[in-house]
């Protein structure tokens, strides 16, 4: 065949061969070659001559951020040990420029609480767990005694815990001494601490672990402290702060749990102290974590009580979202505050300035 528009037989045959090659390539062949360095099913001469390359997934911004905070790619679940760590991932996904949630007037409210706490002594100030250890004992013994006081303090008033600790210290209170004491005698020493029988059992179980595994000392990290019988998150975080001088989290007891919910310091109301801790730590500056427990516990013991809170005497009575105080011709409290002064008072633990009245 000749003339214009005709195709030479040799060219036609080549085109036909190429078409057949394209037709016999199967989907499975394509899938199998995707992971190969040269992934095209019909490889060109140029591809054959290129140096082999290993194709890796392109790193995303999320991957780089995870790397920055020490989370290994591909083992994300293994790196999330509790619900608090999940907040880190939520923060990563937040768009740039997003405003971190904070409760209304929290700096003024906290300054007022500092003022009220400085004007009145609460049981926690003189009989709290940090006051229960023997100052003349060695540091290892003091750490153990602080842990024991925290274990006894659960659902127990500070006064009762303090008296029980005095009885235990008179019996030379060390982990080995607790182990050597008969269970019935130990229960009598603890009574009337709430659930004293269970706590006596937990004390001996924990003491056995401390003697065998820690040479009579206590663990120096949250994970191992919480693994001890009778020790919960609140106790562990407070123990780290008081015994090891390391702030690892906010100790949330019944007072902190109740007051932060009343003040609407949480984005959503909580039913469990651990839920409260996670939400509170998401916005409260870390340098205030240790202070806020001591402040709110004493505030809950003296003013913001569980039953019949003394709202009329509270400096936050007109700005507290849960106040029972009714304004009757009173002058309103100025909600404007010098943020710099509040932050400085927190770091230096100095007395706050007097409340401004309009």
UniProtKB/TrEMBL annotation:
SMART domains: ENDO3c, FES. Its cofactor is [4Fe-4S] cluster. InterPro entries: DNA_glycosylase, Endonuclease-III-like_CS2, Endonuclease3_FeS-loop_motif, HhH-GPD_domain, HhH_base_excis_C, HhH_motif, NTH1. The keyword Metal-binding applies. The keyword Iron applies. GO terms for molecular function: 4 iron, 4 sulfur cluster binding; class I DNA-(apurinic or apyrimidinic site) endonuclease activity; DNA binding; metal ion binding; oxidized pyrimidine nucleobase lesion DNA N-glycosylase activity. One of its GO terms (biological process) is nucleotide-excision repair. Pfam families: HHH, HhH-GPD. Keywords: 4Fe-4S, DNA damage, DNA repair, Glycosidase, Hydrolase, Iron, Iron-sulfur, Lyase, Metal-binding, Mitochondrion, Nucleus, Transit peptide. One of its GO terms (cellular component) is nucleus. It is found in: Nucleus; Mitochondrion. PROSITE patterns: ENDONUCLEASE_III_2. Its EC number is 3.2.2.-, 4.2.99.18. It catalyses: 2'-deoxyribonucleotide-(2'-deoxyribose 5'-phosphate)-2'-deoxyribonucleotide-DNA = a 3'-end 2'-deoxyribonucleotide-(2,3-dehydro-2,3-deoxyribose 5'-phosphate)-DNA + a 5'-end 5'-phospho-2'-deoxyribonucleoside-DNA + H(+). Residues 339-358 are annotated as: Disordered. Residues 152-302 form the HhH-GPD domain. Residues 348-358 have a biased composition (Basic residues). Bifunctional DNA N-glycosylase with associated apurinic/apyrimidinic (AP) lyase function that catalyzes the first step in base excision repair (BER), the primary repair pathway for the repair of oxidative DNA damage. The DNA N-glycosylase activity releases the damaged DNA base from DNA by cleaving the N-glycosidic bond, leaving an AP site. The AP lyase activity cleaves the phosphodiester bond 3' to the AP site by a beta-elimination. Primarily recognizes and repairs oxidative base damage of pyrimidines. Belongs to the Nth/MutY family. HAMAP family: Endonuclease_III_Nth. This is Endonuclease III homolog. The gene is NTH1.
């Amino acid at each position: 065949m000749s003339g214009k528009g005709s195709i030479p037989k040799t060219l036609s045959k080549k085109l036909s061969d190429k078409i057949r090659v394209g037709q016999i390539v199967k989907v499975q062949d394509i899938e199998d070659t995707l992971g190969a360095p040269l992934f095209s099913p019909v490889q060109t001469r140029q591809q054959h001559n290129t140096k082999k390359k290993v194709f890796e997934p392109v790193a995303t911004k999320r991957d780089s951020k995870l790397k920055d905070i020490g989370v290994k790619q591909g083992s994300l679940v293994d790196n999330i040990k509790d619900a608090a760590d999940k907040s880190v991932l939520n923060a990563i996904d937040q768009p740039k420029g997003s405003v971190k949630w904070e409760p209304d007037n929290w700096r003024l409210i906290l300054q007022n609480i500092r003022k009220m706490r400085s004007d009145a002594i609460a049981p926690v100030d003189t009989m709290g767990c940090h006051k229960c250890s023997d100052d003349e004992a060695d540091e290892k013994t003091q750490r153990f005694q602080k842990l024991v006081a925290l274990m006894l303090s659960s659902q127990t008033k500070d006064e009762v815990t303090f008296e029980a600790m005095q009885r235990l210290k008179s019996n030379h209170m060390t982990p080995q001494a607790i182990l050597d004491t008969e269970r019935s005698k130990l229960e009598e020493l603890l009574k009337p601490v709430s659930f004293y029988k269970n706590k006596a059992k937990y004390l001996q179980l924990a003491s056995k672990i401390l003697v065998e595994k820690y040479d009579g000392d206590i663990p120096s990290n949250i994970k191992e402290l919480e693994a001890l019988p009778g020790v919960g998150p609140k106790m562990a975080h407070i123990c780290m702060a008081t015994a090891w001088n390391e702030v690892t989290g906010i100790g949330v007891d019944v007072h902190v749990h109740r007051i932060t919910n009343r003040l609407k310091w949480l984005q959503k109301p909580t039913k469990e102290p651990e839920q409260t801790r996670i939400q509170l730590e998401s916005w409260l500056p870390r340098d205030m974590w240790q202070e806020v427990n001591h402040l709110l516990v004493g505030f809950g013991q003296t003013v913001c009580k569980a039953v019949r809170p003394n709202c009329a005497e509270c400096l936050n009575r007109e700005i507290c979202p849960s106040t029972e105080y009714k304004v009757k011709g009173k002058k309103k409290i100025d909600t404007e505050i010098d943020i710099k002064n509040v932050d400085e008072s927190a770091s230096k633990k100095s007395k706050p300035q007097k409340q401004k009245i309009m």
